[in-house]
Amino acid sequence: MKKLLSMALCMLLLLCAAGCQSEQDKVYDALMASSSEGPRELSSQEAAATSGGAEPEEKPQPDTKLEADLVLCTYTSDATVEIWQDYIREFNETYPNIHIEVKDSEAVSDVPGYITRTTVELMSGEAGDILDMEWLPAQRYSVSGVLAELDSLMETDPDFAGDKYYTNVLDGMRCGGKLYAMPYEFAPVGIRLDKKAADALEAEYRTGKPIKVSEVLALAAQANELPEYAELPVLGYCLWDGFNFAELSSRINENEKTADLDSDSFIQYLTALKALRYSENAQIGAALMPDDGNLSGGFCSIVNLWTANQMFAGNYLDMLDSPSVTPMMALETDEGGRLYTAKSLAVVSSCKNKEAAFAFLKFVLDSERKLDPENYLRTAFAPVNRDVNKRAMEVYYGKDQGEEIQAIDKWCGEVDTVVFYDRSRELLEKLNEICSQYMRDLLTAEECARQMQDMAFIYLRE
């Protein structure tokens, strides 16, 4: 069998201890797996841009008027704590009288335990002042009143210029029309196809081209009808729940407490999902990947579903002309949601100095740390600050890659739907348990859809 692969987009995500992870967490971790690829070497011109070749900007004068002692709570991870401490050191150059202590989750090493403890601390007023929202249920916290509404803080801050940012990324995080968690980094969700399979099926592809989940399922089914792809699994690094990770994102609306999981269109999705071939061994031999994306080892698959952050890391440019894989395309749900995942910060409603806390959120949002390629690769997420992101791409890719940078920037400006896993991973896990019974022939598609709808209804009204 020919070893053809859709190259997975990789993420240096700040993942933490996974000793008690659920199966869904493991799938998500695989989707967010770290790359073994290092950054490409910068040209002398690019290196000069980050090492003093350009005129240094004058640093702002320290603001000594704001004074506060704040606590930032985050999940246990040495890398996470170190990054926040780096941000705080830089922040204190401008705000020397705002002292921020980083509080991690210490002995709570499993995500459900961390969420439970944080929820209890929020209700008792002991959760600190600023929350790193990674792993935490932002939607549920937003409607419960434990997070401060940020729009009023933005409006009263004369230096906050909303047009500097990917406002669509901010809007996608809103709950009931209001912003409670401020995204500061994000990554679109996309797919790559096996290029020879795509060409054989005359499928169109280009960076950022929208493609719906149903179209991906149909292409995979058609590919399995070709002799050379008859035995290939559809997904690398994850099973069918990788598609649920995407498709459920538009079918459940936590704000309106509605779900569309018993409709004819969802039953059709389940039927198409089950018709494909999956394999737990369809993993990516990332360590064996040469720069051009040709597979020299590992397993293979027709489709890879990933956050599209390799656009911000590794050897993405080298792979654009790969004979093996297509450029990354923008994954859409069948309801039209253009997917992304985000890292965000929130201010706790009990915080006594919200102005000082918001100053830190804005500092992180406007940070130019991503202009350093080392920091650009550190999390492989794009800055929500649009100007910083475009400048960082010019440094990392080179200004001669204007067409590709423009395509990526356009895609970043069009995402509008936060992946469901970021919003309600507890519910997603329960829904996948039901779907698993269907995939094992214990339920019909209609029974599966009805049970998933009932589960979503109960959860949304708790």
Provide the helix percentage: 40-55%
Mean pLDDT equals 78
Measured by DSSP, the beta-strand proportion falls in 5-15%
User: Which CATH class of the largest domain is shown?
Assistant: Alpha Beta
Indicate the CATH topology of the largest domain: D-Maltodextrin-Binding Protein, domain 2
Largest sheet: 10 strands, mixed
Residue runs with pLDDT of under 50 for 5 or more positions: 1-56, 281-300, 305-310
> Which homologous superfamily in CATH is the superfamily of the largest domain?
Periplasmic binding protein-like II
Number of helices: 18
What is the chains' assembly state? single chain
CATH architecture of the largest domain: 3-Layer(aba) Sandwich
Order of helices and strands: HHEHEHEHHHEHEHHEEHEHEEHHEHHEHH
Number of domains: 2
Radius of gyration: 22 Å
Distance between the termini: 51 Å
Number of strand elements: 12
Written description of the protein model:
It is a single chain. With 462 residues, the chain is of the alpha/beta class. It has two domains: 23-43 and 191-338, D-Maltodextrin-Binding Protein, domain 2, CATH 3.40.190; 62-187 and 340-418, D-Maltodextrin-Binding Protein, domain 2 (3-Layer(aba) Sandwich). The chain is 41% helix and 12% strand. The protein is built from 18 helices and twelve strands. It has helices at 23-31, 44-50, 78-94, 111-124, 138-144, 151-156, 167-172, 195-200, 213-224, 241-251, 264-274, 316-319, 354-366, 373-379, 386-397, 402-412, 420-439, 445-460; strands at 68-73, 98-103, 130-132, 181-193, 210-212, 252-253, 258-259, 303-307, 329-332, 339-347, 382-383, 417-418. Strands 1, 2, 3, 4, 5, 8, 9, 10, 11 and 12 form a ten-stranded mixed beta sheet that branches. The termini are far apart. The model is unreliable at 1-56, 281-300 and 305-310 (pLDDT under 50).
